[in-house]
Design goal:
The chain is of the alpha/beta class. It has twelve helices and eleven strands. An eight-stranded parallel sheet has the order 1-9-8-6-5-4-3-2. A three-stranded antiparallel sheet has the order 7-11-10, with no helix packed on it. A hairpin with a 7-residue loop joins strand 10 and strand 11. The protein is globular and about 50 Å long.
């Protein structure tokens, strides 16, 4: 596909909406945490061309860690789907045939990539280091979303037990360019056209911006989180948000519980009333207004 300088990155949990996707040159629906029914409705409302992001199934976390964490917070062990409904949503995207289907938390199999190609979709994979990049290329991925440490939301490591690579995004792009010959989409912490331009100069084909669109008129960001983002604060990377490393707004809970074990996706349903606002670094002064205006300001 032809790569615009800026794409609207997928933001699971509500901020990415069909209205946001339809307002920009190219954006992603974030179907990782929604139900299959909600995914079907979003796919029907999005206007081509667009992308879709899915959370790839991950191994069951240690049930011992899950039980100990539940006891620590005097909570019951919830019933969860560690696959995030991947099979049902994958079937939906095969029918919808968006321009791009991407994964976070893992990589498509070669067979899954072949099925996407057969329906006319490209397969992109989120990677955080050279090993993941080489393996995704070996399986036949069409593009790699290279996610750096300043990205808001969950870090896309394929194994949630891993400590994510902390190299600066530009350095990650340079390192991966040397290992694979695929289009690279840089993601994480970009707030202006200068940042986009610098990453394009380092070898990225495009730059994915997520947090920059959180306050867009078309974003589904909750009113509570809009007010928190406008108020400001500190963005930190921690397991305290979900058990997986994620970057978001620091809260008393995050400060007090940096040692949550890797039990994603069990933690959030254990603590449904705990404040939770994921956002990238340097989020003060996020632009408000139409997504098209935000996109224009980000484009070199």
């Amino acid at each position: 596909m032809d790569f615009p300088d800026v794409v609207a990155a997928p933001m699971a949990g509500g901020p990415s909406t069909p209205e946001l996707v339809n307002a920009v040159t190219f954006g992603f629906l974030a179907l990782g945490t929604c139900t299959a029914e909600a995914a079907r409705a979003q796919l029907a409302a999005a206007q081509a061309p667009f992308g879709v992001n899915l959370f790839y199934p991950q191994p069951e976390p240690s049930l011992g860690d899950v039980r100990r964490t539940a006891a620590r917070f005097h909570a019951d062990v919830p019933q969860v789907d560690v696959t995030s409904g991947f099979a049902a949503k994958f079937a939906l995207v095969l029918d919808a045939a968006p321009a791009v289907v991407s994964t976070t938390f893992g990589c498509f199999t070669q067979q899954e990539i072949s099925r996407l190609h057969a329906c006319g979709s490209e397969a992109w994979v989120t990677v955080t280091n050279e090993f993941e990049a080489r393996e995704a290329a070996r399986r036949g991925a069409d593009g790699l979303i290279v996610q750096g440490p300043l990205a808001g939301g969950h870090r896309g490591t394929w194994d949630q037990r891993d400590t994510p690579d902390e190299r600066e995004l530009g350095d990650l792009i340079t390192a991966i360019v040397r290992k694979v010959d695929l289009p690279l989409i840089a993601a994480g912490g970009v707030r202006d056209a200068g940042g986009v331009d610098r990453l394009l100069a380092r070898g990225a084909s495009s730059v994915a911006c997520g947090s920059a669109f959180l306050l867009a008129d078309e974003a589904g960001t909750s009113e509570q989180n809009r007010q928190l983002l406008k108020k400001g604060g500190i963005s930190v990377s921690s397991r305290a948000f979900s058990g997986r490393f994620a970057r978001g707004l620091e809260t008393p809970f995050v400060r007090e519980h940096p040692d949550i074990p890797p039990i994603y996706p069990y933690l959030k349903p254990m603590l449904p009333d705990t404040p939770y606002c994921l956002v990238g670094a340097d989020f003060s002064g996020l632009a408000e207004g139409p997504a098209s205006d935000i996109e224009r300001a980000l484009t070199p």
